[in-house]
Amino acid sequence: MARKSPAQTSRQSLKKARAGKAAKVKEPKERASADSKAAAGALPQWSPAEVEEAFRRFQAVDPAPETELEHEDPYTLLVSVVLSAQATDAGVNKATPALFAAADTPAKMVKLGEAKVRDYIKTIGLYRTKAKNVVALSKKLVEEHGGKVPPSREALEALPGVGRKTANVVLNVAFGEPTIAVDTHIFRVGNRTGLATGKTPFEVEEKLNAVVSDKYKRYAHHWLILHGRYICVARRPLCEKCPIADLCKWPGKIVPAAV
Fold it and tell me: Which domain range does residue 94 map to?
């Protein structure tokens, strides 16, 4: 019997994944044990070929993914990302249309003021602190950057409420930089699959930057966050719909033998 080429195997794996036959999850107790093992960094490392194949499949499914945060320009993106900390994109998207209708530039946001910003975003967690940061960062943009969002990590991280993850998102989405922002979803995916393990988001980010080839880095953040948000979810991952189930090292699933 002729041996299948890597391309044939990959196409079949992707077809299986789309058909919902990629893998089966084990019982809850076994899944919990598997997650503990993953959290301890005890999973086997991926080979360079496996990493390459995973991102090739992500690209095949969605060639140019975009952020789910609704925005019109770098400034509204920056504000949306700041608001999304410890909140869902869907929740942020419900609040920002009215906010941006009232203030869609740094100068307008400063004029709107902290109290009114709070009223617009009060459905979002930590809204008091976030309102304070949004007005403060807007003021700094006006005073130090001519009302423009700077395309510099150092300048972005100097803004109130902006940390490394937020800066990475803005650099990637607004300016096309090949940065990888590690949020809770990507942190989980990196550790659970064994793709990039680490005790902190920064450790996971460093490992991803080391193993993901340059040709995939522009969209790597989006592929991984969408994978964590909709497939490799926290409580019960949907391994039966996963396009990389046969590559994943998580011991909480069973992958059927290749036919």
Answer: 74-175
Any alpha helices (H) in 40-151, and if so which ranges? 48-61, 74-83, 89-102, 106-112, 114-121, 127-145
Model confidence over 125-154: pLDDT tens digits?
A: 999 999 999 999 999 999 999 999 999 999
What type of residue is 43?
A: L
217 is catalytic: no
Whether the model pTM is above 0.90: no
Q: Using H for helix, E for strand and C for coil, what is the string for 143-159?
A: HHHCCCCCCCHHHHHCC
| Domain total in the chain | 2
Angle between helices 89-102 and 74-83 (to 10 degrees): 130
What angle (nearest 5°) sits at the alpha carbon of residue 206, between those of residues 203 and 210? 140
Choose one of 175, 208, 225: the last residue of a domain.
Answer: 175
| Catalytic residue (one of 16, 37, 130, 165) | 165
188 and 162 in a common domain: no
- Shared-domain flag, residues 136 and 205: no
Q: Among the options 183, 246, 249, 253, which is catalytic?
A: 183
Task: Answer for the pair 256, 21: CB distance below 8 angstroms, yes or no.
Answer: yes
Residue 183 is a catalytic residue: yes
Cβ-contact 121, 113 below 8 angstroms: no
User: What are the pLDDT digits (tens) for 187-229?
Assistant: 999 999 999 999 999 999 999 999 999 999 999 999 999 999 9
Collect all residues with Cβ–Cβ distance below 8 Å to 166 and sequence separation of at least 6. 78, 81, 82, 85, 156, 181
What letter represents residue 53's amino acid?
E
Q: Which two tokens stand for residue 128?
A: 């008091």
State the Cα–Cα distance between residues 159 and 179, nearest whole angstrom. 18
